[in-house]
Each structure stands twice: as structure tokens, then as C-alpha cells.
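User: Fold this one for me? It's Integral membrane protein.
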Amino acid sequence: MSGPRPGGVTLVAVLAWISGFFQILTGILILLGGAAGGATLAWVAILIGAITIIVSLGLFRGNNAARVVVAIVFVLNLVSAIITMFASPSQLWSALIAAVLAIIGLVLLFSQRANEFFRG
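Assistant: Here's what I get for Integral membrane protein.
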């Protein structure tokens, strides 16, 4: 890790951590709600949330593998948004927002300052 963490990397890491927290919380609430057949969904949400938090901690520490994982997720989100724009025109605005957020995330993770931070 070279120098202080760029603000954009911090922003992506914080948002990932918050997302992971809410995924875990959702899983717990599903388990507590006792919905029929919801236990599998709940455990999947908890697992994904835990992985998301671990990856976010990697971003905070400048772990390049964590950056690659997040970048792959952003690219998949972008592809999904583009498909949604054509497959479901009624979802155009939400798909556009998802696409823009994915692009912003990629730009923040691969800016010159971010590259220097993850290179070190």
C-alpha cells in the first residue's frame, strides 16, 4: 500500500461494508420471521453479507484481490443493467442508475491514485 487511501476507495469500501451489514441483517430477520422455505435464502444472504464485509475490509487495507472481486461485481452489475435496459424497458431508469453506479465504482477503484494505493 502506497500512501494514504484515496477517498474514492474509502467510499467504495464503506458502501460495500454497509451493503454486507444489511445483507446479514436481512438474513437474520428472515430466519427470525420463520418464513416457510426462507431458511436457505436467509443463510445465502448471511453468507453473501459476510463475504461482502470481508472484501470491504480488504479494500480498506489496500488488498488488490479485494479490488478485483469488487471490480468483477461492478462489471457484472453493468452487464445486468444493460441487459435489463433492453429486456425490460419499464425498468430503464433503475437500470441506468445501476449502470452509472457501476461505472463510478470502477472509475474510483481504478483511478491513478487508487492504482498507486493498491500497487504498494
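One thing worth pointing out: The chain has one domain: 7-119.
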